[in-house]
Amino acid sequence: MDLVYFDFIAFTGNGGFFFDGALQLYDLGDTKNCNNILLVNTKLVEAFGEIFSGLFSFGQDIFGNQFVFDQLNNQISVFNIEDGSRTPVAKSFAEWLVEFTADLDYFSGWSYQKQYTEKYELPIENRIVPIKPFVIQGAFTIDNFFDTAFPEYIIYNADIAKQIFHLEEGKPVKLILGSRKQ
């Protein structure tokens, strides 16, 4: 982790929810909820196992995709919770802030959060989950979304990721979706 990150967390008052909750930055305190950085990372390691190896999450978007310090590659990446992929974004937290704000909607899902909350109540601890997973061409539309609380969305998506993570591109797969609340 880098010092700019710790300065930013101190400046924001120890993380929190931003852009109507579309961006969540975890806090460094001792809370026992969805905002505690150590608790969240413990749940991610438990759910994803080796797929999450070398990563440490500091925040998430509205879909639960994690912003992570990728310790193996010395960079900040987005960890896609549906398929376990890592997409490099920046070499430092300061660079991540620039990239994030340059494409705020892409990185946070803010427009989807706004559309969803026009129709449904979205508790702050909940994230939006696709009914038909994006990884199998599920639509980015309100009709394809439901919301669920921490850590349910992590466990649900980790189940999908574990089924497809090691598959070759284009290889047919039959996903078995676990139970979910709708």
Characteristics of this structure?
single chain, about 180 residues, alpha+beta, 6-stranded antiparallel beta sheet, two-stranded antiparallel sheet, 6 helices, about 35% helix, about 20% strand
How large is the radius of gyration? 16 Å
Oligomer: single chain
Arithmetic mean of pLDDT: 90
- What characteristic shape results from the CA principal axes? globular
What is the count of DSSP helices, taking H or I runs of 4+ residues? 6
Secondary structure: number of strands? 8
The residue ranges in which pLDDT falls below 50 over 5 or more consecutive positions are none
Major sheet details = 6 strands, antiparallel
Bin the strand percentage.
Answer: 15-25%
Distance between the termini: 37 Å
How many domain modules? Answer: 1
**Roughly how much helix do the residues carry, as a percent range?**
25-40%
Structure in words:
The protein is α+β, with helices and mostly antiparallel strands. Helices cover 33% and strands 20% of the residues. The protein has one domain (3-164). The chain has helices at 3-12, 37-48, 93-102, 104-108, 110-119, 152-164, and strands at 16-18, 23-25, 55-60, 66-70, 75-79, 86-90, 126-130, 145-149. The strands form two sheets. It has a six-stranded antiparallel sheet with strand order 1-2-3-4-5-6. The protein has a two-stranded antiparallel sheet with strand order 7-8. Helix 2 runs parallel beside helix 6 (152-164). The longest helix is centred in the last third of the chain and has 13 residues, at 152-164. The protein starts with a helix and ends in an 18-residue tail after the last helix. The mean pLDDT is 90.
